[in-house]
Design brief:
The complex is a heterodimer. By secondary structure, chain A is an alpha+beta fold. Chain A is built from 8 helices and 9 strands. Helices cover 42% and strands 20% of the residues of chain A. In chain B, strands 2-3-1-7-8 form a 5-stranded antiparallel β-sheet, covered by helices on one side. A 3-stranded antiparallel β-sheet of chain B has the order 4-6-5, with helices on one face. The chains are: A alpha+beta, B alpha+beta.
Chain lengths: 299, 670
């Protein structure tokens, strides 16, 4: 199995092909720092409102607190999620997901695939849903959720979201112990690269930056700037008289990442924590409401 | 007799909700059937990862005929009103019955075929089902625990016609996701349904799945010369996670065996849902049992190896925590407790620790604990909440603190107290016995109760979100099991929180506990009413009193007491009762005898109660009985001579006061 296993990038390409054939628009990662693929506006905003939507993309996900300076074989400050959103979720969505696993080389007759209760919630964006974590031989390889609320608003129709942890999946498919040893491209190629060749230096430098060097005074100032921009952008008007929801949402994402950085620097006291989360949630809710209104006006 | 079979086929149902869902289905179905006047012989329900099934045997083919009395217009109402009623009810004028000036029609309604009724009933069961948490999906509006795909509903081998939010009832279901013949199959009765599922690798009955898991796991262990550590909660959960259980033995790297066994077991259990096993020497064995949902074509080798790798990664993480956590002493962790909220209205864990120290200082001397050790233990008891290991496995709180304390070389009594101060957490866990542990365990629970009472969070009805009843029961069990002599009121007064209502709460809990042990709750009330806060003494007295009341003397004395009380109460309503000590009466002899008996009993009783020799105290009271009986037989209390009456009332007050030293007999019921 190991010799024929897909490389990291082949897993991505295979999933792109798979979901493209099933009607998804294949998007690029969002170019703002986020902690999870869900936060990409292609998921969080598109899950709102009545319009159908199918998209798939890779999202580098930054978790500053998880940085281990490249020393831990299982933990990264930036990992990659493969995100699929199907709205409304098709009736056979579980079947589609299982077929995608087969496509990347996980045979459900040889492995133990299980859907284990795991209800998803992200309080900073006022979102929750019911679903599972998906296990393959005891390893969590995906998160599967039916959104129920986003930005504090009930969703209708419901979006189904699949998030593959690409590194986990690749570890499994390739039978490798350390993320850094994953074959990034074809091991037979003269230009063979491991995951470590590609990302080790970034892990080391960003771990030091995020946990040791980031200037908390600057971060706090930037957080306030982002916070101030959101209501201004929502109150502003574009050429068609619309509020600038998407730019406003970018600022929410930036605020959220700044919060994560402050947290990783240990700069947020427990008492402040809730007020930061509350502030981000309120900004996100304002964007969600403006987006839904815009969708309704557009329909 | 006809059978009804209903299956609700969905995406994976959380294991923890399955048993409740099966009984909910049975309960609501029985209710609906009986409301439709449909009797049945037996009913059974089954829950599994992807299905909820119900089978009802012995239903009638049709409902029994019904009669309905319909009220019409008053007698003498306009002819048009009467004609309208007749038309509507479909009866002739001569069929009406007159009662109290009103016309009634008795309508016979032929029973409907059951198959026409069960469709509606099944549809209602689905739309009104009470899941602990439910969702909507796609563009539909039906709520279910996860998307519902099929409804199989057959009655007497006929498909029942029904539709719920676009799902049309049929006679079809599906087997295992990955094994057996794919696609739906038809089942028209329970036997073919169950057999069809089994042929497609689904075991319907959770009891069968549970047995297979347990037997399979035991056999795997036996072949390895090890013993399965049985775990009912885990077994229940795993039973709800597999349709076709295949237990597999996996190997754990021996190098992890130097981790605390609780860590390994918790990691196996909560992260991976694996069973653990013991080696012949009783230590944890380097194996685990995972329960797969598939019979893999390679015999499960890949699955077992995959699971072993995941466990190794988990334990590697645990080892990292175990090593990192020990870099900082428990003492050095105290500062970080300021950052952990105990409760929004009750401040931080650090503040809680300060309170634990105050309580422990008050308790230690009363329970024979060395104060310096107890205080050190109280101070460090919560420090492990700041460790990475407890962050990962909250259920190891206390236990990890104990290990870290031991690793630091702290006194074993401190380590044991830190480890065990949450005990007893349930009826199956015994109360701690080491004095230092007792001191901290009591302080922990008392502070919890006092703190939440102070912010108005008393348990009410079934609401007890902070498990205060369990805390109170823990305090009571620690005191009783160790026969501690603890003035609870005095200890509680040492807390900065007000004690309002707390002793009553303990009395209530003690009552519940003693009732479970077979004691009479009125005796608990009677003894508590005299204001004793020493639970060990209270319980001893209750036991003695219970025995006493079963004797002839006890019974008669109780009725004497009632008689005295009734007279005193009646007289008190007329005017103030006499004050001052009773003097020795001059006659009649029965009155003198009672006076002398009381003079004799009072010092004996006082001494016995002082020495807590309750049997002797009650014996002393018992010796009053003949004089009390004779007094009531011969003497009229309500004498016309005021001096005599006052003397006799004073005598009865003495009787009541003497008995009141033991208990408030007025609270004892017949």
């Amino acid at each position: 199995m190991v010799s024929r296993a897909l490389s990291f990038q082949d897993i991505i390409l295979t999933l792109h092909g798979f979901w493209s054939e099933r009607g998804c628009v294949i998007l690029q990662p969002y170019d703002v720092e986020v902690g999870a693929g869900t936060l990409h506006p292609a998921t969080i905003l598109r899950a709102l409102g009545p319009k159908p939507w199918r998209a798939a993309y890779v999202q580098p996900s930054r978790r500053p607190s998880d940085g281990r300076h490249g020393d831990n074989p299982n933990r990264l400050r930036q990992f990659h999620q493969y995100q699929v959103i199907l709205k409304p979720n098709p009736p056979d969505m579980q079947g589609l997901y299982l077929a995608s696993l087969e496509a990347v080389g996980i045979d459900p007759r040889l492995h133990d695939i299980r859907f284990v209760e795991d209800d998803w919630e992200n309080p900073t964006v006022g979102a929750w849903g019911l679903g599972w974590e998906v296990w393959c031989d005891g390893m969590e390889i995906s998160q599967y959720t039916y959104f129920q609320q986003v930005g504090g608003l009930d969703v209708s129709p419901v979006s189904g979201e699949i998030t593959y942890g690409l590194e986990r999946l690749a570890l499994y498919v390739q039978g490798v112990e350390s993320i850094y040893d994953l074959a990034f491209n074809d091991p037979q190629s003269p230009d063979f690269m491991t995951y470590g060749d590609v990302f080790m230096e970034s892990e080391r430098e960003f771990s030091a930056f995020e946990q040791e060097q980031a200037d908390t005074a600057i971060l706090e100032r930037q957080f306030q700037d982002m916070e101030a921009m959101v209501p201004r952008l929502l109150a502003a008007k574009g050429r068609r008289g619309q509020p600038l929801v998407l730019p406003a949402f970018d600022h929410v994402l930036k605020a959220s990442h700044l919060f994560n950085l402050l947290d990783a620097r240990g700069a947020i006291a427990v008492a402040q924590r809730q007020s930061y989360i509350g502030a981000i949630r309120d900004l996100c809710r304002a964007c969600a409401q403006a987006w839904v209104k815009l969708q309704a006006a557009d329909a | 007799m006809p059978q009804l079979l209903l299956e609700l086929f969905s995406e994976e149902i959380p294991a923890r909700m399955q048993p409740g869902a099966a009984s909910e289905l049975e309960r609501t179905a029985a209710q609906r059937l009986s409301r439709a006047s449909l009797t049945f012989e037996q009913m059974a329900s089954f829950a599994g990862p992807r299905r909820l099934a119900l089978v009802v045997d012995g239903l009638p083919a049709r409902q029994v005929d019904q009669t309905e009395e319909r009220k019409g217009p008053r007698v003498g109402a306009p002819e048009t009103a009467l004609a309208g009623f007749l038309r509507q009810a479909g009866v002739a004028r001569e069929d009406l019955i007159e009662r109290d000036g009103v016309w009634f029609a008795n309508l016979a309604r032929a029973g409907r075929p059951t198959i026409e009724l069960v469709g509606k009933i099944a549809a209602d069961l689905v739309t009104q089902f009470a899941w602990p948490k439910s969702m909507v999906w796609g563009s539909g509006s039906l709520r279910w625990v996860r998307p519902l795909h099929r409804i199989l509903c057959v009655f007497d081998e006929q498909t029942v016609s029904l539709a719920v939010d676009g799902i049309v009832g049929a006679d079809l279901t599906e087997g295992h996701r990955f094994m057996g013949e794919p696609g739906p199959f038809a089942a028209r009765d329970f036997e073919s349904y169950r057999a069809g599922l089994e042929a497609r690798f689904v075991i319907l009955d959770p009891a069968d799945r549970r047995r297979r898991i347990l037997e399979g796991a035991r056999a795997l262990c036996q072949a390895q010369g090890i013993t399965l550590i049985e775990d009912d909660g885990l077994l229940e959960e795993v039973t709800g996670m597999v349709e076709w259980p295949v237990p597999l033995l996996g190997a754990m790297d021996r190098r992890f065996l130097d981790l605390p066994p609780e860590v390994i077991r918790t990691s196996m259990r909560t992260h991976q849902r694996y069973f653990a096993a013991r080696a012949p020497d009783g230590a944890l064995a380097p194996f685990f049992i995972a329960v797969a949902n598939v019979e893999a074509s390679d015999g499960g080798g890949l699955i077992a190896a995959g699971n072993a790798r995941v466990l190794a990664a988990r334990l590697e993480d645990a080892r990292y925590f175990w090593e990192e956590d020990r870099r900082l002493s428990l003492e050095d962790r105290l500062g970080a407790l300021a950052g952990i909220t105990f409760h929004g209205k009750l401040g931080s864990m650090l503040e809680r620790v300060a309170r634990l120290e105050v309580l422990t200082r008050a308790i230690a001397p009363k329970v024979g604990a060395e104060a310096t050790l107890a205080l050190a233990a109280a101070r460090l008891a919560k420090a492990d909440l700041t460790t990475a290991m407890v962050g990962e496995f909250p259920e190891l709180q206390g236990i990890m603190g104990g290990y870290y304390a031991k690793a630091e070389g702290l006194d074993p009594a401190i380590a044991a107290a830190v480890a065990d101060h949450y005990k007893p957490q349930g009826p199956s866990e015994s109360a701690p016995v080491a004095p230092v542990t007792i001191a901290v365990a009591l302080a922990d629970k008392l502070d919890t109760i006092l703190a939440f009472f102070s912010i108005g969070e008393k348990p009410t009805g079934s609401r007890d979100p902070f498990a205060l009843r369990r805390s109170a029961l823990g305090v009571i069990r620690i005191i009783l099991d160790n026969r501690l002599r603890l003035p609870l009121g005095e200890i509680i007064a040492a807390s900065p929180f007000p004690a309002d209502g707390v002793m009553d709460f303990f009395a209530d809990r003690l009552k519940v506990l003693l009732r479970e042990r077979g004691a009479r709750h009125d005796l608990v009330d009677a003894v508590f009413a005299i204001g004793d806060d020493d639970l060990t003494r209270v319980v001893a007295l209750i036991e003695a009193l219970d025995g006493f009341l079963h004797t002839d003397n006890g019974e008669n004395l109780l009725s004497g007491y009632r008689r005295a009380s009734n007279i005193l109460a009646a007289e008190a309503r007329k005017g103030p009762l006499p004050v001052g000590a009773a003097a020795r009466p001059s006659g009649p002899p029965e009155e003198v005898t009672l006076f002398d008996a009381l003079e004799n009993v009072r010092p004996r009783l006082a001494e016995a109660m002082e020495k807590e020799d309750f049997a002797a105290g009650l014996d002393a009271l018992a010796s009053l009985r003949p004089s009390v009986d004779a007094f009531f037989d011969a003497v009229l209390v309500n004498s016309t001579i005021p001096r005599e009456r006052d003397g006799r009332l004073a005598l009865l007050m003495l009787v009541r006061a003497a008995m009141g030293r033991v208990a408030d007999f007025s609270r004892i019921s017949g």
